[in-house]
Amino acid sequence: MIGGAAGHKMLRRASWLVFVASVTVPAAWARMQLATFFGVDAVPKCGMPVLVIYAWAFLSSGLLSLIAAGLAGVAYRRLPAPRGVARTAECVLVSVPALVAAVLFIFVMAAA
Prior knowledge:
Layout: H1 4-39, H2 48-77, H3 85-111
Helix pairs in contact: 1-2, 2-3
């Protein structure tokens, strides 16, 4: 295990990398799936597969964001005691997609 400042910086970079992936990869996947779904033929279709594609994109984004928030939290805990507000805001920012996915999941489950 790498300790000290090098380990902290490496965890922060990994956290930001996973955060960027949590925003871009599910969105790109959903875009490709929707293009394939609507590109097959011009006949009107049922909208349930579209909802499933969006649900998978939100849930995978939330899961990746949860991983990024965990990495950011470990990096935050490795900082010396007077931690700055910017680092706290970074942890909150990284966890926003996970919070949005959780809220949407709760609304969907409550509606079912």
